Every structure is written in C-alpha cells, then in structure tokens.
Fold:
Amino acid sequence: MVITSAEFVISNSRVNKCPTTGLPEYAFIGRSNVGKSSLINMLTGRKGLAMTSQKPGKTQLINHFLINKDWYLVDLPGYGYARLSRDGRDGLRKMIEDYILERTELVCLFVLLDSRLEPQRIDLEFIEWLGEEGIPFALVFTKADKLSKGKLAANIAAYKERLLQQWEELPPLFITSSEARMGRDELLSYIDGINKSL
Ligand code: GTP
Ligand code: MG
Structure:
C-alpha cells in the first residue's frame, strides 16, 4: 500500500470525543517508550507526525491520524509508566480501557513489545485481558535493530513458546524497527488486507 496522505486530526482524552466519520482504525498500544509513536512515523514516512521522546510517558492522549483519507492510525499512551501519580496512572488506564472496549471503529489493536526483552508480565496480562474481552489484536516486536539476528530470533521464539502456554493459536506477529524501516511493508499490507475485507 502506498501512503499518499497522512494528517493529524485530533487529540483527546475521551473515547466519545473521537472522530465520528465511522472510518476503520488501527491503534498502537504497549508499554511506555516501546516505540508506538516512532512506528506511526515510520509507517507513514512522516517524521515528526506523532511526537516521540527518549523519555517514557510522552504520549498522554488518544491521537488520530487520517491516512489516505480512508482510515486512521491511532497513537495511544503507554501503559505501565511508573513515574506518574496514582491518579494520573488510573486516568490513563481508564482512557485506554474505555477506548479499547467502546470504540467500535477499532478493527485491530497492535500490541507493541520490545524485542530485546523476555516476556514481561505486564504485557502478558494485557494480552490475556484482550483475549478475555475478545478484542482483535496483533503483536508487533519493536527495536529489532538493537540486537543481533540470532538474539532476535531467540527472543521471538521464546515469546511464541510463552504465548502458546496461554493460547491455542498465535496471533499475527510482526518484527519491526522504526530505525531501520523494517516490517513496514508487512504491516501496511496486513492493514490493507483488512481494509479491503471490510
Ligand atoms: P510513550 O509515548 O511515552 O508511551 O512512548 P512510545 O511508545 O510512543 O515511544 P516513542 O516512539 O516515543 O520512542 C521511545 C524511544 O525509543 C525514542 O527515543 C525512539 O527514538 C526510540 N525508538 C523507537 N523505535 C525505535 C527503533 O525501532 N529502534 C531504535 N533504535 N530506537 C527506537
Ligand atoms: Mg508515544
């Protein structure tokens, strides 16, 4: 799929304030700093479209980006950001949960995982919750440029093994690097396939 246009539409903290165009959308979630905003910039080929930071906790709102005037990419705040107050954390969690559970336009949630790390409890619990709620999702490993091919393959294999303890079947799985523009074609054609099936 060719990206002909990508534009920021709106940021907000409430699912009921999200765009009402009814177009399908794909949202990115995962731990703070895992690379959600960077991946949106890489996929769209627009540096600085979504705001990124070396410090975790950058994205604090639900951000809609209209792609090819036809569908949205949605940048969400990260979960598990420890340096927020309890109220701040609870507020973010509610924002994310309400969005995931109530947003009927959401056709697939991409859960980002840092490919350098072994399976983290917070991610596994989040994935389990998605399963319980019946939310369609796919897994996206990020920052693959930061480790050797061998280590990357070993980490992905370990992750699959861990998931298969919980799931009968693996969800769709993508390996990406925003730095190296890895996984771009695969993700875009996955989205394209879903768009065409709607
Ligand atoms: P929050 O908005 O805080 O939840 O973070 P985020 O998940 O949106 O992460 P963001 O895209 O802001 O990236 C966090 C940091 O990781 C930045 O310093 C990025 O440059 C870096 N980063 C993201 N993706 C990659 C990647 O593929 N490779 C490398 N080497 N660095 C990356
Ligand atoms: Mg972000």
In short: Residues 31 and 135 are 18 Å apart (CA to CA). The chain has one domain: 6-197. The longest strand covers residues 106-114.
